[in-house]
Each structure stands twice: as structure tokens, then as C-alpha cells.
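Homework-ish question, so no full write-ups if that breaks the rules, but can someone show me the predicted structure for this set?
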Amino acid sequence: MPEQIKPEQIKLTVSHAPFLHNGSRISKKSYNIILAAMIPVVAGILQYGMPAFSVVTLAVGSAMFWEVLMNFITRRSVSIGDGNAAVIGLVFAMLLPAITPWWAVITGTGLAVIIGKQIYGGIGGNPFNPVAVAMVILMLSWKDLFDFNTALVNYSFSFQPVYPLVLLKSFGVEAVSGISAADLFMGHQVGGIGSTFGLGLVIAGVYLMVRGYIRWEISLSFLAGIFATALCFHLSKPDVYASPVFHLLTGYSLVGAFFLATEDSSSPVGFLPMLIYGALGGILTVLIRNIGAHIDGVVYAILFINLVNPLIDKIRPKASKRVIYYA
Amino acid sequence: MIKRSFFGFARPSLSYEAIPETQPEPVVVVPREKIVLFIPAPCAGDAEGCAKPGDEVAAGEKIVADGNDAVYAISPVAGTITEMTGFDGIKGNRMTAVSIDVSKDSDSKTDDGFKTYGQSPTLETAATYFGFLPGKPDFTPFTQPGRKIKSIVVMGVDRDLKCITNQHVIKTAIVSVKTGIEVLRKITGIQDVILVVPENLLQVAGSAGASIKAAGSQYPTAHPELLLKRLGADESLEPESSVFFTAESVAALGVAYNTGRIPSTKLVTVVKKDGSLRLVSAPIGTRFSDILATVAQMPSSGDRVVSGGPLTGEAVYTLDYPVMPDTDTIVVQNSGDIVHVSDTPCDNCGECIRVCPVNVPVSMLVRYIEAGEYETAEEKMDLMACIECGFCSYVCESRIPIFQYIRLAKHAVAGMNSAEE
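A: Not a homework solution, just the prediction itself:
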């Protein structure tokens, strides 16, 4: 029989209020995002085969490696457990063509994790979306890597093997008039590993929005921004500008709405700011596509709205006034 | 532990505990060996009129620590003072802990000081005798210079989650509440008394002789300031002119005038390790060890015991900690159920912003506080608007001790302000 412990010998845990927690944590959010992203990613792997699989695994693995390396260099606690680095790697891979050289993948995740996130102090400190930062640097440095038509030249598809946005940019709206929206939605198009299967992206996005891991305000206003702006262009000159549905289902539109624009640290938190932020992203995307020089405007648009995020997040309701009596 | 809702797009919500239809009678706890009372003033030692170790006290006798007659404790039992030591509260407020050895026949000696004063209730007798009533009524606003009180709000709702103390008072002692309200009207001269109760107790409360208002069921709507804002729309209630009393303290006032004795038994909701509730009735000063032993909830090492509600209470480090006049809840938690804070920085998810009842930009505020920029936090980030409900910490996915940060910053700002004066 063990000796009875006296009340004064019990060492209680002492901490501060509150003593309840809803159990949420960053790792749960990350794993849910990874889970949801699996739908379009697996579809991409099925379409592009082993090369796509190796790009995805290399991207996730190298992103986590860079994170640990930076933890080690900056002498901080190891933070890959929160899953954020894996999410960065995975989302980055979703944007890449299946045939991306290994060095480009590793460089890209390195740029995303180090320059995009860690130099600002890690999670929560980055003013820009790490993936968008890496993408833009890569796109400006090695333009040819993101020429989807050349990258995927060795594949034979059951559909027209041309990147729809290139087709639109180079040959005008008539060239894409034969592509049906249903085909685009079902992933019968050329593009990034995880950014072509519209149905899968929508399912993933709806799941994440319902669970609250991404904010519906941002995603939906982003899509609404694309739709409304493209509609305006289309209505004004239907023979020059493509339909809004085409813009929604091609390029990085959906992946941008559900995985890029919603990145917590670089997006606003207020209701109205989130709507403005998303809508602005959508508008810019179409402006860049229709008027600008670039083929797809999503990553540039995301970087731009990241830039204005701190400003628009200043729009907030007034805090309640208080009368305080000091005893 | 309450889990995050599956549907995360909606605003998180927490509900107050509603007292069940049938509730077993509170367990009566008798203090063993000794009790501990806290006097909210530092111990002055040998000053005139102060209690000293070795003094005999009678049940109902006032104990003064620093010669100031307005700051005191009232012993619920007869016994001998064994120790008087200084004790620092959570924000550095200096108190005196008085240990009293309980006499075998603890009710034998009673102090009748109140009986003679009790016949003609005035604000003065109230301040002299009721500062230690269960529920801790506060009469200072009535005498505060520059403040004109117009209405009294009696809270038949509980401030924190998992607590049914005041609801139980409304349910079982509405007659005493009624007497208490009459006494309050008599001593303050204020006729406008509002009794706030949960929806399910509206009928019971109807006989209390005050205007009855229903409180919301969602945390933290029963917070006095939010309540005022809600009621204020049609009642022209303002924080400057309103005073709050708990239903328990008003009922205790009623009992005091009916019986001529100052009640000293506190009703406490014990939240057991499995989350179920048990009401306990114990004299003020009863140590937690006596209460938890009676309801078979003795913690083991590593567990957590909280004095006060689960969102706003204080964890105690010893089971010698006593029931105080305003201890409505004691929470016992298994070590396995404790969610620890982390050093992960804010990732700007915005949950805190969505739950804040007073629109404080919590995520930005916390960055300023972490950097020690308390003045900017006060001027630009509405630090002082916080009503300290603790909801932001409850939903924080980075598990930042936001609530503690805010309290620390407020304390620091208050210190800076008083230093300037």
C-alpha cells in the first residue's frame, strides 16, 4: 500500500487563464490543407505520371529540409512539426510543370522557405506569400521552365496539348473558342501539377472553407473579382477577350483562390478587408492577363495584394469605449 | 475540453451553463482544523486594533489587519488566530492571510455586533459589515466622489462558464433575494433595480420585485459592460450610473436582515475532473483541500486547480488556498486535459478578431505587447477596451497566452500612469 500523499505534498500545475482551449493548432490546419490539396495533386500525378510524383515529393521534402536548416542556423526550436513548411512545398509543387528539373525544385523551395518566410522570423512573420515569392523569382530568372508547352512536349494527351492561356495570349479568343468549360473543369488541360483539375480544386477549397482553415471571404471574393472583371472585358469586346468562365478555370486561378491568396500571414483578418483583398487580387489577375505582358497574372496579383494587405487591414470596426474606474 | 466546431467558417461560440431542472442539494462542507481568510490590506503587525496571533475570535467577528476599520475579514467560525502573514495576490495586490484554528464547538461563541446595527440599515453599516458577505457586494461606488448612481443591477447569471452558483440562488432563494433588493432600496435610496436572469429562470425571478431582464446564453454576454450595452438601448443605463451586485450577495443581505446574523456560507460550483458540476456549500475561508476531499476530487501532482471560472479564474499552487467571498467556481483538471501554451508566434489566422466582443484588434495588439510597446498598444490598439473575457486565448491556434499578455500590459500601463501622477 503506497503511503497516502498529504494535500500539501501535491504539486499542482499553475498557469494563467483561460484554462480551456478549443484544441485548434497550426499543425492541424496544415495537415488539413495537405489533405485537401491531395485531391488535385493526385489527379495531377495520375495525369503526368512519375515525373510529377517526384516533383511533389522533392518539393515537400526539400521545403522541410530548408526549414530545419534555417531552424538550425537561427538557433530556434525545430518547427517542421507545424506542417507549414510541408504546405509551402506542396503548394509550390502544385504550380510547377511535371517536368521541372530537380535543381529548380530545390532552389524554388529554398527561396520560398528562406527568402519567403524564415528571414522574417518564421511562421506568421512573412509579409508575402512564400510560394508566390519563389514562383516570381523563378519565373523571372528561368522563363523557359514555365513554358508549359515545351515542358510537356513529350506527353501525349487526349486533349489539345497547349497551355490555354498561351493560346489565348498568342492567337486570340478564337483559338480557345473550341475548348469547352467542362473539359477545363475536369482537368483536360495543360498546366501545373496541381492546378488543372478544377473539380478537385473546388472540392478541396469548399472543404477548407467549411472547416474554416481558409477564409471563404478571401477565396470567394478573389473568384468573384476574376469573374466580374473578365465579364466586363468580355462584354465590351467579346472577340478580343475570353469569357469569365475560361479565366476562372485556366492558369492558377483556382489554386490561387484556395491556396495562395488565403495564406494566413500575408492576408488580412477583418471581414471587409478580406473582401477587398480578395476582390483586388481577382481584378488584378484579369488585368494582367488581358492587358499586361505576362501570360498568367495570379502570382503577381497575389504579391501585389500581399503588399497592400497591411494598409487595407487597417479598416476595422471601432473598439467599444470603456469607462474605467480606478479603485 | 470543449472542441473546435467542425464548421470553422462560422464565428466560434461558447454557451453558459444552464442550471438543470432538478439539481441535488449542495454538499455541505465543514472545515477541518483550520480556515484561512484573506484581508485585502498588508499586515501592519502591532497597530492599534489589529488582530494578532493568539487572539480568540468569535463566529461573525471582524478581523482587521492594518488598523483601517473599512478593510476586514469576518470569521465564519469561532477559533484562535494562529498566524497572520503577508500574501501577494496575482497583480501584486498586498493582502494578509489569517489562519484560524477552528474550535471544536465552532458555533459556541458568536459576535453580536451586527445585531444592534442591523435594525436600522444604512450605507455605513453596509460598508462596515457587508464587505465579506458571500458574493462580495461592493458599496464603494455609492460613496465614490463624482459618481451618481441611478440604477442597481442584480446578476442572477454567472459570469464564467461552467458555473451555476448565482442561478442556484435565484432558483432556491428568490425570497431572500427579494428581501435583499428591498434592503438595497432602503439603504441606497435607489428604486431602479434590475434583476438579470437566464431565460429559463424568468418565471422564478418574477416574484423578486424588480424589473426582470433576460441575459443571453452566449459567452461573454453576461459581462457587466456588454450587458449594459445590450440593456442600455431601452433603459438608458450607463456604466457611470450603474452598480452591479451578484444575486448571492443580495440574497445574503436579505438573510442578514431577516436573521440578524451575517451569513458566511459560500455557495461554490465545483467542476469535477470529468467536467460534471457539483454545488458545494462551505464557510468562507474553507480550504480547497477540505472541499475537494468532500466531493472526492482530490487532485494528484500535475493536475490543475482553479479558483474562479475556467476562462477567467486563477490557478492555485496549494490546496491550502481558501474559498473567498467571491469564489463562485472551483475547477479541477486532470494533468492530461491541460492544454499548454506554446512559443509559436501569431500566424495571423484572425480567430481572435472574430471572437472579440469589443472589437479589439487582438492579433496586432499582441505583437505590440510582445515587443513591450505598451504605450503604443494603449494608444493605437485599444488595449484598454479589453473586457478580459479570455475568449481570444481560448481560440488561439498558435496557443499564445494572449489573455495573460493583455493583463500584463494593462498592469504595466496602469503602473506607468500612476507613476506619472
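Now go work out the reasoning yourself. Hint: Chain A has one domain: 26-312.
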